[in-house]
Design a protein that fits this description.
This protein is mainly α. The chain has 6 helices and no strands.
Length: 140
């Protein structure tokens, strides 16, 4: 499909393309083997985001129950919902740390804004400051 050189690209479509390309790049470079994929996961304890995803996938039919495995019930859904604030807090901490490391590696706020899909360097910096505020409040 050819693009019109006189029409600005659709930002949502460009972002979706970057997301796909990002997943492919990281998987190809840092998660190509089972060992590489397992290194960020605890070998015997499921993480909050994994538990939420699992219940969601089972409920939606994206994942199938094993033979003899109980159906997902209301208590499972309540348990997954109970983990959402914890998972959100972990993601905020990861994002804040990633932003700190990006700045430490010399990335500009403009480059960071692009990566986050934000329109301005100021928006990226404000996001970082909000994350720091939330993660500091969670630590108290």
């Amino acid at each position: 499909m050819e693009s019109d050189p006189f029409t600005a690209p659709d930002p949502d479509q460009a972002r979706a393309h970057r997301v796909h390309a990002s997943l492919f790049r990281i998987a190809e470079r840092h998660a190509a083997t089972d060992g590489q994929r397992r290194r960020q996961v605890h070998p015997s304890v499921i993480g909050p985001h994994e538990a939420i995803r699992l219940v969601s996938y089972l409920l939606s039919g994206s994942a199938q129950l094993d033979e003899g495995e109980p159906e997902v019930d209301h208590a499972d859904v309540t348990a997954a919902l109970s983990l959402v604030p914890l998972a959100r807090g972990e993601m905020d901490g990861l994002e804040a740390g990633l932003l700190q490391m990006a700045r430490g590696r010399g990335m500009t706020w403009q480059e960071i804004a692009f990566g986050l899909g934000l329109g301005t360097p100021q928006a990226a910096r404000q996001r970082y400051e909000r994350l720091l505020g939330r993660t500091a409040a969670d630590a108290e």
